[in-house]
Amino acid sequence: MKKVEEIENYTLELEERLVELSLKVKNLTNKLNETQKSHTQLLNKLTHNLKNPIGISFSFSEMILENVENYDSEKLAKHIDVINSSSKYAIDLLNSFVKFNSVNNDTYSLNLEENNYSEFLNEILNKYSIKFNEENQNLFYQTEENLTLKFDQADLTFAFNQLLNNALQFSSENKMTSVITTTNSTHIITEITDQGVGITPENVPLVFNAFFVENTYTAKRKKCIGLGLTIAKKIIEFHKGTIKISSTPNKGTSVTVKLPL
């Protein structure tokens, strides 16, 4: 009787383990299917976004080649400019997608080094000050001195470039963008506030989604890619930080980045 009871207990335990294993396999299968679905959707969006600039470049180059000897020089210059801007958009899109894939890879890691965050940020802002001046815009920045932090310089540069580019591209002449960096007991806080076109309230939660764009074109009629904020958020979160956006249409946007000390 004891052996029979032991066999029954063993059988019951085995059945329970099989059920548990079956549920794990099912969950993993569901996750794999979701991942494959997500990858397919992203590739479809990438393909869709590449069709237009490649098609434009091809069409205009054909027009030039078919009648190259009789092409008016002014018209030729305009058409070459269209080909150039379309090609640049396609290259920027592919480079952004490569970076997007990189930060979403399981093997992705940061190259963390202790650096002077104040000097790092000021160096970026000094370069952008020139860009803002070229667009007849104003950039004001104020940073606490000698803030040190462990961070990946290349990746954090990429993230702040995206945020500052957005402020620049979605603002018009004579507008002000301010960058203020402060600290509390636990974090370095950098707030970027512009006076640009802003974002509608219902779209603010969506701006970090891959390929999401509220405005297809910037204030300078440059076509948006829709991956910059997605990548920036991922990089900041890899630094165990947070990024939040608040915005009012036609008044501007404020982006707050918090990085732990």
UniProtKB/TrEMBL annotation:
SMART domains listed in its UniProt record: HATPase_c
InterPro entries: HATPase_C_sf, HATPase_dom, His_kinase_dom, HisK_dim/P_sf, Sensor_HK_Regulatory, Sig_transdc_His_kin-like_C
Ranges of residues in domain Histidine kinase: 45-261
EC number(s) on file: 2.7.13.3
Pfam families: HATPase_c
GO terms for MF: phosphorelay sensor kinase activity
Keywords: Coiled coil, Kinase, Transferase, Two-component regulatory system
Coiled coil feature spans: 4-45
Catalytic activities: ATP + protein L-histidine = ADP + protein N-phospho-L-histidine
PANTHER family found in the cross-reference section: HISTIDINE KINASE 1, TWO-COMPONENT HISTIDINE KINASE
UniProt-recorded name of the protein: histidine kinase
